[in-house]
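the two lines:
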Amino acid sequence: MAVTSSHGSTRTWWQQNQQTLTPWLFLIPGMFMFAVYVVWPILSSFWISFYDWNGLRAPDGSSTAEWVGLGNYAELIGDDAFETSLKNNILWLVLYMLAVPFGLFIAIFLNQTVWGIRMYKSLFFFPFVISQVVVGLIFSWFYAPNFGLLYLLTEWLTGTGTAILADPNKVTYGIIAAGLWPQTAYCMILYLTGLNNVSPDQVEAARLDGAKGFKMLWYVILPQLRPATFIAVVVTVIGALRSFDLVSIMTTGGPFGSSRVLSFYMYEQALSEYGFRMGYGAAIAVVLFLIMMVFISGFIWKMVRDEKEGY
Amino acid sequence: MFPRPIAQVSPLARISYQVALPLVLILWLLPLIGVAFTSVRPASDLAQGNYFGWPSSFAWQNYVEVFQNTPMWQYIKNSFYVTIPTVIGAVAISCMTGFALGIYKFRSNLLVFFLFVAGNFVPFQILMVPVRDMTSQLNLINTYTGLVLFHVAFQSGFCTLFMRNFIRALPRELIEAARVEGVSEFQIFFHIVLPLMRPAIAALSVLIFTFIWNDFFWATVLTTKAEVQPITAGLSSLNGQWVAAWHLVSAGSILAALPPVAMFFLMQKHFIAGLTLGAVK
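prediction for all of em together
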């Protein structure tokens, strides 16, 4: 710095300040888009959740919304459909986590060097590349009553077939199982990369000490896989809370609204033929956001900590 | 290496592993294989209850029928019109934000960075009501532009995370040396950093292509007409019309899955690098 300031008089203002200004110039487009389409809408949703609004605007562009304070939230408390959605979301969160151990299991199974293993790895990863809409259709067919594979299988095993998507007590499990398919593939690929980076020396040392099988996995391998596990948990939590596509495609929330989740219920309230209740929909979204905030703060806290250590 | 390499265990275990691999794979992909077969099954097979046997003949006309009787071709084109500009926009923006956050040390650097990261984790349903309202006020409902603008903005969160981590890992000496030579900051970006970012740009493009192609939520929220609907939303509305015409549903599903699958196989190395590089260090 001392060198640059010594002949500062011959340099233009831009040359002197370009190192401070350049980052901001480069950030402008991204920050502008992000502020308009992400940050502001979050605040706006909180605000709209205090209103009763059908989404329409007067000809002059002003909103037709009416202030109801906490009215929408008060209504949520007595709303059975909301309660069902919330319960289902918790079920999603818990059961979706199975994708993490499943993914680890498949990754361990595939972490070999035999002929064609690369091809196998890619094919196992396949479900994640496909749209959830297609996954939903595939599983609707798999679960279809009378001829679906699952129906035939249960019929063969128990004598009576199960039409899982038509049973209010089982439908959510059926949809989550469909969701686990691509999610497991995602976790698998994270773990495959993680296993690649496991230190061979430590494994060999542990082997000499007589560690093997599950003990080896638990005490030697898993601690080294922590970054992969962290990402796997993060993406799985996000996936569970965002779940919309599968519910929408496979059951549209039915039968009798028993498979709704918060994201789908808010869509139903705000945009579908059931009504244009923007305020109520926004209130549901705020609840979903607050649940997510618990996790986001945890993730960010950990990432900031790692980041500070990195400097 | 964990588990113990199969080459070091008994021949019996080795052979059973080789046999198990394809079997497990078939089991894993069974639903997909079933749908692929159904997509070329003649309707008469389904009527006679031949759901799982070998198709009595290969009915490629299912695909012809899908193209002739539905706006499928239009849906596919729409998906490309939405996906390609989004990829370009999001990658361009994040090259810049990644450069700014990865190279420069300034006080609010981490704060801005984590704002992008946090936004990327948000359940996007909370954005739905305001974004829809904003899009309709701009008269962009049922336009490609409306979808592209939103996708670019939302994806910039993930892309920034990805690009910034990539740029942080570049050798800093290169940039310091250039500065000593008197190279301007803009030239550093265009002539030094950008060429080094090529693998990251490739990886990110493949990933974003897949994410956007597969997006269903925003396609339903921001478009309603077949003229602009991407294939995911289109397939969903066709599914409502084709009640139990599983041979057509399957053909449509396979068509919708094809571009991202092709992308994945062509750019596999970049795809996996992308998924893990932004994430696992």
